[in-house]
Write a structure and sequence with these properties.
The chain has 255 residues and is mainly α. It contains twelve helices and three strands. It holds the Pfam family MerR_1.
């Protein structure tokens, strides 16, 4: 069965103009073009469009999405990871909704009772919020003060566009590592180590860690709740996989 570009636009909410653009850049070519010049899409194309939209939700750029789709990782495996990430985010938002709802109820009850102490358990105010990077940043600043200052100077010089581009690159890199992980690729595999080398070169834009510092950075990804959450939103266990791959890289290339 095939669907016209108008059908796909209606089903997906993606405009026909955007679909034509995706075709022009090779991201989503139609299955075939009719004699009338209209584009037609089959089931495989709809599944590919779903993947594109999922990765757009992660704020990936079109080039990064193209690279991920061209890696030919099993589609079901990747979708399972997207599904887990979405479920975790749903659960987190549901917890936040309960937190806010509970706070509203306690404030209203306290107001009705003229009770100055309206909150029964203050720790409940913060259920569902993700911790900040402050503790990890403090540790990095203490252990590697020169590197910290250098990285801060680079960050301050970045424009908003530079920052957005860098964040997309980081997210795309995490997704590529997740794809290796979910299919059971060893962290010592040359393809994984090539990805870690790209990660290391990215870090070197801000500071140049030696072997111990690079291994320490990988450990921070695992131990710091915010860093670990960011990795595990992509795929459960990704922080540990990234750390282990960085250890192999540091031992082989930086020692």
């Amino acid at each position: 069965m095939a669907w016209s570009i108008a059908d796909v636009a209606r089903m997906s909410g993606v405009t026909s103009r955007t679909l034509r653009h995706y075709d022009e850049i090779g991201l989503l070519p139609p299955a075939w073009i009719g004699s009338n010049g209209h584009r037609y899409y089959e089931e495989a194309d709809l599944l590919r469009l779903q993947q594109i939209l999922l990765m757009r939700e992660l704020d990936l750029g079109l080039r990064e999405i193209q690279a991920v789709l061209d890696s030919h990782v099993d589609q079901v495996t990747v979708l399972r990871e997207h599904h887990r990430r979405l479920l975790r985010e749903r659960d987190r938002l549901e917890t936040l909704a309960r937190t806010v709802g509970r706070t509203i109820a306690e404030l209203e009850e306290g107001k009705d009772n003229d009770d100055m102490t309206k909150i029964n358990r203050p720790e409940n105010l913060f259920e569902g919020f993700e911790p900040s990077h402050s503790e990890a940043e403090a540790e990095v600043r203490e252990r590697w003060p020169q590197a910290w200052e250098q990285s801060q100077q680079v960050i301050e010089a970045m424009t908003a566009e530079d920052m957005e581009r860098w964040q997309r690159e980081v997210t795309a890199q995490m997704i590529r590592m997740a794809e290796f992980m979910v299919v059971g690729t060893s962290v010592a595999d040359p393809a994984v180590q090539a990805e870690v080398d790209a990660h290391y070169q990215g870090v070197c834009r801000f500071w140049t860690p030696n072997a111990a510092a690079y291994e320490g950075l990988g450990q921070t990804y695992v131990e710091d709740p915010q860093f670990r959450s960011n990795f595990d939103k992509i795929a459960e266990g990704l922080a540990v996989y990234q750390r282990d791959a960085m250890v192999v890289y540091a031992d082989a290339r930086l020692s």
